[in-house]
């Protein structure tokens, strides 16, 4: 049986980061990258400025591609929080829930990785801060044209996270989940993974992977193996 795997990007990235997964995962797992407004094929559309507006957008685009198929969600960092809030929105509106949710490199809503409002910093200081995390920030520093295009996107995503409060809710999702943790992730201490138990009433598995916040790239083979293992029931 085929299952659709809807993937949600992290701050500043696009659906393109998941395209390679289509060749790495077996044919019964159909990778469907969800694109945030303002990037990729949706470049030029208005950026979301809050978690609520982002979920409004994701609900619309998810619904147009479900077609009654079983599905799972994978989100990394900001994408993980979006996967949770998307699932809550679907639960509360009585829509079909995912078979499995992957929370990757993502603290649960009640645990923050800093109270700074980085999105309010001048561009140069903002870049200095995100450079500490790795990822693609260095490319922005080295290419002024890239910076002009992508810096507003990254700042908008940081704004979503930094203003997101989770509404103080701890809605338990009746779904199975896998929490993926980078053992050297400065944004998500390994011990935070178990805290997702407060948001899940289904089964939960924690997968610790060597690496920092971007283990999604550095340990791609391990991430793919964990996805296959979790979705093996759909073979």
UniProtKB/TrEMBL annotation:
Gene3D superfamilies: alpha/beta hydrolase. Residues 4-230 form the Thioesterase domain. The lineage of its organism: Bacteria, Bacillati, Bacillota, Bacilli, Bacillales. PANTHER family: S-ACYL FATTY ACID SYNTHASE THIOESTERASE, MEDIUM CHAIN, THIOESTERASE. Belongs to the thioesterase family. This is Thioesterase II family protein. InterPro entries: AB_hydrolase_fold, TEII, Thioesterase. Pfam families: Thioesterase.
